[in-house]
Amino acid sequence: MGSVYIQIVEGNPQLRSLLGWHLQQVGYGVFQSADIRHAREVYYSRQPTLVIVDSDLPDGDGLEFCRWLGKQQQSLILMLSARNAEADIVAGLKAGADDYITKPFGMQEFLARVEALLRRCRTLPPPASLEYGSLKIDLVQRRVRFQEEQIELTPQEFSLLYVLAQAGGTPLSRTELLKRAWPDAIDNPRTIDTHVLSLRKKIETDPRQPSLIQTVRNVGYRFNIESLQSSREVPDTNNHHRSPELSPARTHT
Question: pLDDT digits over 50-99, tens only?
């Protein structure tokens, strides 16, 4: 159980501390966040198995954060809420929560819900690939296909692309990218710029005007997931012809 890490995102410090203490007592590793901003930072750096999210947070809506977590395709989600109407529970589950528990609740019930969710996690194999529209990242073979073409990447370029894509469109700083995509500690954040330039040359239509790996001023870089996901909504009405709308990032190739 020591390898299972749980993140608690709860604005109430007393409840957050109490839940964390009980989870630690039964052997889980615990990370605590009081708001969404800190929760995202912790999520990226710790990659928890389970995230426990309150529906009402100081700096935003827990449902929106739950939807964001769902895009990461990695962690289970348990939502806590004082809202106990059926419509609220349904909204939480539709937002991506794997389970929903209403306040007030008993600690034994809470721990049982956590254990039930983690049992589900243990029975599911890890994903073999990630797909965003026309982009497929094969995590087993460490290969990338984009618009039906095999893209030859170096191991470091693959890791960088994977981390950017997994972030679901959220901008990542150079320091965060180094922490998550590089196997060894590197002190120079500008190393990221060199590898981003190389990656853009392989997957962008025009590397001088990149549309997939975008620079975010004073922050770092983000992957333009929106342009890839929108391609899923375009119907393919002719099996012998692929509409150029399905390939918004490389229409000139």
Answer: 999 999 898 888 899 998 888 876 789 999 999 989 999 999 999 999 99
Q: Which helix (H) or strand (E) holds 146?
A: strand 143-146
Classify domain 5-123 at the CATH superfamily level.
Response regulator (3.40.50.2300)
- CB burial of 110-124 (b: ≥16 within 10 Å; e: otherwise) equals bbebbeebbeeeeee
Q: Where in the chain is the domain with CATH 3.40.50.2300?
A: 5-123
Enter the DSSP assignment of 73.
Answer: T
CB neighbour burial string for 38-53, b if at least 16 within 10 angstroms, e if fewer: ebbebbbeeebbbbbb
Q: Residue 29: helix, strand or coil by DSSP?
A: strand
Choose among 219, 215, 224, 218: nearest CA to 173.
219
* Residue at 189: amino acid letter: P
Whole-model pTM: value is: 0.55
Phi then psi for residue 62, to 5 deg, are: -60, -30
